[in-house]
Amino acid sequence: MNADDDAKRLEWVSFQFEIAGEDREIDLQEFKKALKVKESFFAERFFALFDSDGSGTITLQELLGALNLLIHGNTMDKLKFLFQVYDVDGLCYRSYSPSTGSQWSLGKCSSPLGHGNGSIDPDELRVVLQSCLKESAISLPEEKLDDLTLALFESADKDHSGSITFEELQEELDKFPEVMENLTISAANWLKPPSSKKRPQIPRHLTSAYWHNNCGKLAVLAVYIGLNILLFTLAALKYQSSGTRIMIARGGGQCLNFNCSFIVVLMLRRCLTWLRATWLARVLPLDQNVEFHQLIGYVVVGFSFLHTTAHVVNFAQLAQSENSTFQFWEYLLTTRPGIGWVYGTASLTGIVLQLLILIMLVCSCSFVRRSGHFEVFYWTHLLYISIWALLIVHGPNFWKWLLVPGLLFFLEKVVGLVLSRMAALSIVEVNLLSSKVTHLVISRPPFFRYKPGDYIYLNIPAIAKYEWHPFTISSAPEQEDTIWLHIRSQGQWTNRLYEYFKAADPICLGAKRLTQSLKLRRSQRKSQKEGPSPVNENHRFCKIKCYLDGPYGTPTRRIFASEHAVLIGAGIGITPFASILQSIMYRHQKRKQHCPNCHYSWCEDIRDDFLIFKVDFIWINRDQKSFEWFVSLLTKLEMDQAEEEHGGHFLELHMYMTSALSKNDMKAIGLQMALDLLAKKENKDSITGLKTRTQPGRPDWSKVFQKVAAEKKGKVQVFFCGSPALAKVLKSHCEQLNFKFFKENF
Q1: Which sequence ranges are marked TM in the entry (predicted)?
Q2: CA-to-CA distance for 606 and 601, rounded, in angstroms?
């Protein structure tokens, strides 16, 4: 280490452990607090190993010495450190001198953790793995913990002596090169100072890849900006003789006419769904309709502020003029000056419009929509009806701009209302799943046709009579009798839905209860082949009236035109892919052919709307329970393609659990090794029960997409449903590799 590195490390360690100078010492409790570990086991083990003189406290010199070993020591030193962490009976490094570097020797530990003989027995290993599970927020039965312990122990105990020596642990680690590679990082990443050097990066929006992949969106945006400039200029020039203030007000007013009518076009869900099936979907950025809707909303706020400000300044000037017969407040708050084409109400309606627009803007922000107050956003957004009415009264020409899009919008609403009332739909089954997910099974009317990944608006009068909420359909279109919805409780309405069915009787059918129950149970047994959950205390049979508006298309409709599709879902964002994966496997099985003599199977190259050759499905969850509600479907998908193993998987699953510590963390190395060994032995993952191994931590997106590109299965398209923050990261990676990127929006 050079002097600069020493100084930075000293400053960082002092900050982390709140050590003001070299004479200060820290005890075990301060050490635990600084490490921020969930389980005290590892803090105690590290503390005992760092306390080289056995004094019960760690000096700054001892801490820096251990840090020097973990960062700059050789692999053997680091393996010895790892071994002693696992040797619970306790051997410690001894006789370390800061002046001589990392010259450590093995010696008996005088810490309260006990003494040992330099080997790890099964009970010690079980204690370590149990602490690893708690650190990674993984809950497994005691029997499974025993299986993990024995799997790792039997693999490492080469001489069957009943204990693992240092040499045996080293040999076992050699089987996991990725662990050995990351050990140097994991040994010190929690004490390593953050890098202060940041590589200068070109802003993403200025890169050639961004312009290449977003040319359609940028072209439409350029046309939109050009139209606003043109309309503003023409309107301003028309009133050139009236002065600058009137020119600005009229120019802003004309742009408001255009934007307040154009925003209606982006609300035509049925028209947009129809356009997705035409060639225009390849030209127009229909998938960005929500983004454009938000953009126009901000533009409306800006132009309304500009328009209002120009008029207010003009009123102030008029009130101060010698020829004025009205005061400033009369211009602003009365109809006496006669400004406006409907009884001089332009000023009053303008003030009300400004207030309504600001209310809509604030209540549309993400901190309102995503903080459990969707109803606030929903009801305030209905103010658009009042705004349109006031705009017609406020401006003499607005009705001309609104006529065509307004008529289409009215027809869409009428058609949606009629279709939603044509069939008497009912919720016939409810499953209350983990993570407060409500699985609704709705009777499907014969005329209801949809595509995988489509969404509907749901109204349940028993929950809220006038509220409609959007949810993705999680069942495949090939499932003829029912429609599935999976709804996570995140807001007031969804929480009321979950609590309503949680408090209901297991069978809530009213008249002829037993007769209806028998029919539904037989229907349940018949549909169990498709993977629903078995009857239990969280399973309800019912007959609750509901209404559906839709279906409406999403970017995922393009998936069947992909050659290599990558589906990425985060948390409940998996719901559109539930429908898609089922439909993909159904169509794939339909294409398969079998030889009656040798049982060889292959897929016919039928060039219809199904062009997919490979599907990668990536699901990222925070905790273990979030996997449970979707595992039954994934298990069925794995079984459906089990016979294709010799020819390679058509569908490849990738599961990630972000709360689990990754293999580059010393507190998880042993657990991840044990999980790997047991998964190979049992041919299933201990966390989900799938054949696919659940990976700890977050995906390394660079490696993920490089692997996809290297497979060369055809044109790659990435489909994502999840948080906006992750969407930006994924889109950036896709732009670098020229992958098409689509994200789900509501």
Answers
A1: 218-237, 295-319, 339-364, 376-395, 401-419, 565-586
A2: 15
Strands 91-94 vs 592-594: parallel, antiparallel or unpaired: unpaired
**CA distances (Å), origin 567, targets 171, 289, 564, 685, 705:** 38, 21, 10, 21, 12
What mean pLDDT is predicted for residues 145-160?
88
620 pairs with which residues across the strands? 570, 656
Helix (H) or strand (E) holding 546: strand 539-552
Phi-psi region of 435 (alpha: psi -120 to 50; beta: other; left: phi over 0): left
Q: How many CA atoms lie within 13 A of 337 on its CB side?
A: 20
Question: Rounded to whole angstroms, what are the CA distances from 618 to 110, 218, 337, 565?
Answer: 48, 29, 65, 11
DSSP-assigned states of every residue in 119-183: -B-HHHHHHHHHHHHHHTT----HHHHHHHHHHHHHHH-TT-SSSB-HHHHHHHHTT-HHHHHHH
Q: 439: Cβ–Cβ under 8 A, 6 or more apart, which residues?
A: 430, 431, 432, 433, 484, 485, 486, 487, 533, 629
Gyration radius (Cα) of the chain, Å: 33
Closest CA relative to residue 472, chosen from 381, 570, 575, 375:
575
Secondary structure (3-state) at 56:
coil
Top mean-pLDDT range of 201-205, 209-213, 308-312, 419-423: 308-312
Contact assessment for residue 423 and residue 445, using Cβ atoms and an 8 Å cutoff = yes
- Read off the pLDDT of residues 394-453 as tens digits, 9 standing for 90 and up: 988 999 999 999 999 999 989 888 888 877 788 999 988 877 889 999 998 888 888 888
Cα–Cα distance measured from residue 589 to residue 609, given in angstroms and rounded to the nearest whole number:
15
Q: What is the pTM of this model?
A: 0.76
Q: How many CA atoms lie within 13 A of 737 on its CB side?
A: 22
Specify the DSSP class assigned to residue 615. Answer: E
| Confidence (pLDDT) at 367 | 78
